[in-house]
Specification:
9 helices, alpha+beta, 344 residues, 2 domains, Ribosomal Protein S5, domain 2, Alpha-Beta Plaits
Length: 344
């Protein structure tokens, strides 16, 4: 009986929150532009190895959508590279689809990166995203895949390439994000997202300018200097303006009314709990990621996040289908590892 070594690549890519567009209609001259945050604890993980024939499998038997996506991405990678050696791709963990975590982009880049590494190809994430038709509106998922952190992109260019990264700031290690998920809803994506955006009146230029000012002079400086109050005030203003703008397309400021109610409760609870902690002047930085239904509440410490969740549970606001978790921001991107297994 002979034992051979089998090469296996594993890649883990963290999820991200889309905290808002800067100029969704381009009234200031360039469309979209995004603010985003990469978070720990919610991730995509894939595994690649050789196989007698192509095989795509998922850890979750219900992940048919992800299997179809992954199969399509592999096909596109083969078309662009001309490489056709059969492979086994396992989707060990996947981000919830259409939930505001950037599931499509993280899955595409994860597969693209392990495919490229397997074949010894030096391909940038921007190139892989372009090949796989990701980053058509937002570039934060691509930048987040590479380096994590709090990110701002400049919106896609006329050349069809994904948006360039304008700013990357390390998210303060002590701050925490309460993530609120509603499994009963799905956010818009693809054609539906494009159609929804087309039905909206352009965001007025003065409001886009306000968002840009909030990001540049409150959100980014607040995070860079670990000053929570201006950061929270800026995020809340951005989310207020965008929530009102997208409300006609998503049925309100939040896709999920229940999620909106919970993050607002957390903000109110934060104000009540602040005591001598003036960083909690604004309660929490709250909002919705992308089209939802995921909501978020950012707080300045693990203790304040735990206290807010405790108050939430005591108030019995968690309906069936809702989940709440506390995660940290993460200041690194995807992690690729290689190992060998034995075959007898």
């Amino acid at each position: 009986m002979r034992t051979d070594s089998r090469r296996v690549l594993t890649l883990r890519a963290p999820g991200r929150l889309h905290l808002g567009f800067l100029d969704p209609a381009g009234t200031l001259g360039r469309r979209f532009g995004s603010l985003g945050l990469v978070i720990d604890g919610i991730a995509t993980e894939v595994e690649l190895s050789a196989a007698p024939a192509d095989e795509v499998v998922a850890g979750d038997a219900t992940a048919q959508l992800e299997i179809e996506r992954a199969t399509r991405y592999l096909k596109l990678l083969r078309e662009h590279t001309g490489l056709s050696a059969p492979l086994r791709l396992q989707l060990s963990r996947v981000l919830p689809p259409h939930a505001g975590f950037g599931s499509g982009t993280q899955l595409a880049l994860s597969i693209g990166r392990v495919f490229a590494h397997w074949h010894g190809l030096e391909l940038s994430s921007m190139t892989l995203a372009h090949w796989l038709a990701r980053g058509l509106r937002s570039g934060i998922g691509i930048a987040g895949f590479d380096q994590g952190g709090l990110l701002v992109d400049g919106g896609p260019g006329a050349d069809g390439m994904p948006a360039p990264l304008l700013s990357r700031i390390a998210f303060p290690a002590a701050w925490r994000v309460i993530v609120v998920q509603d499994d009963r809803h799905r956010g818009l994506s693809g054609t539906q997202e494009k159609q929804a955006i087309a039905t909206l009146e352009p965001l007025p230029q003065n409001l886009s300018a306000d968002i840009c000012h909030q990001v540049l002079m409150r959100v980014l400086p607040g995070a860079a200097s670990s000053e929570f109050a201006p950061f929270a005030a800026g995020i809340n203003r951005v989310q207020q303006l965008l929530g009102n703008h997208f409300a006609p397309a998503q049925g309100g400021a939040y896709t999920s009314v229940a999620v909106g109610r919970i993050v607002q409760f957390i903000a109110d609870a934060g104000r009540e709990l602040r005591g001598a902690d003036q960083s909690l002047e604004h309660g929490a930085a709250i909002g919705q990621s992308s089209w939802g239904p995921t909501g978020f509440a950012i707080l300045p410490s693990q203790a304040s996040a735990e206290a807010a969740v405790h108050a939430l549970r005591a108030a019995r606001l968690l309906e069936p289908g809702l989940t709440v978790s506390i995660v940290a921001g993460i200041n690194r991107g995807a992690v690729l590892s290689e190992h060998a297994t034995s075959m007898t």
